[in-house]
Amino acid sequence: MNEPQAARPTQHASERALEDLDHNAIEPPPVPRREIPEGAGRVVFVGAGPGAPDLVSLRGARVIETADIIIWASSLVHPDMVARHKAGAELIDSASIPLEDLEPLYTRARDEGLVVARVHTGDPSIYGATAEQRDLCRRIGIDFETIPGISAFSAAAARMDVEITVPEVSQSLVLTRLEGGRTPMPDGETVASFARHGATMAIYLSAARNKALQDALLEGGYLPETPCIIGYAVSWPEEIMFRCDLAHLSETMRNHKLWKHAVVLVGPALAEGPIKTRSHLYHPGFRHEYRGADAQAHADLKAHGTRGVYDQNPTNSDTKDNS
């Protein structure tokens, strides 16, 4: 009897089509890496991460350790993050100054060839107010670069040991904030409209209006039993984490006086307990360019998907019957 042969990876039609293209004719061209001359003044936007000083990247830590000027918001960035500065570095707390007060500092750095570490909480690209600072750098002619950081949503998911993109449950993540606050939201960007997708959501800057947030999520279609994670001061010494369902989101936040510094994760992917699906990537029936597939497992995967195929409790016949 012939044993089933492992399926071999095949080249996708789109890959073959790309090989046939004249890549020299494709526009736009790749964006080159910006090279900053040695000794030139520059501003480095450093993502400090959610709070814990050891969650900053090695690259970010090196910039903070060697910078001539460090600008940071004491209300958002852990003081130990900037305590690693070199002797003689100038430390400036930006918590109480507007953008206009940064221009003289950036101009001096340009003229004197100084390195400014502009330390931002989380990741500078998410609610970092860095776009206008980059515009300022361009206007006055000083080089700049950005070092990414760990955002609070990622730290909260890690702290609670959850995956926010569980196969066949949620493969999308929406980062947003509740509309109607002091800072206007663009037309069409509402929590309720995003909630209609049923994906995982990470909601920032909305803790003070937690009842309105809960109502908007329910209006958008999340069920009252939808799992929620609340992270307050994630990775700081005073960190508090909560699990609740959506029906009790506002009550939980009000009872614990969580008015700020909180991120809320919402979505079915956050449910506790064993998952009922598995990633195709490591399934024996899934083939890709680095690995073939077992023929029988490949047939089963095509016929049934992963629901019920991956059961962390093999004695649970109910799960298998649902495949």
Provide a descriptive summary of the structure in words.
This protein is 27% helix and 16% strand. The chain has 323 residues and is of the alpha/beta class. The chain has 3 domains: 42-150, Cobalt-precorrin-4 Transmethylase, domain 1, CATH 3.40.1010; 153-270, Methyltransferase, Cobalt-precorrin-4 Transmethylase, Domain 2 (2-Layer Sandwich); 276-323, no CATH class. The strands form 2 sheets. A 5-stranded parallel sheet has the order 3-2-4-1-5, with helices on both faces. A 5-stranded mixed sheet has the order 6-7-10-8-9, sandwiched between helices. A hairpin with a 7-residue loop joins strand 8 and strand 9. The longest helix has 11 residues, at 210-220.
Q: What keyword list fits this structure?
A:
alpha/beta; 11 helices; single chain; disordered C terminus; 323 residues; Siro_Cobalamin_biosynth; Precorrin-4 C(11)-methyltransferase; Methyltransferase, Cobalt-precorrin-4 Transmethylase, Domain 2; Cobalt-precorrin-4 Transmethylase, domain 1; five-stranded mixed β-sheet
Going by CATH, the homologous superfamily of the largest domain would be Tetrapyrrole methylase, C-terminal domain
**What is the CATH topology of the largest domain?**
Methyltransferase, Cobalt-precorrin-4 Transmethylase, Domain 2
How confident overall, as mean pLDDT? 87
Question: Would you count the extended β strands for me?
Answer: 10
Low-confidence spans? 308-323
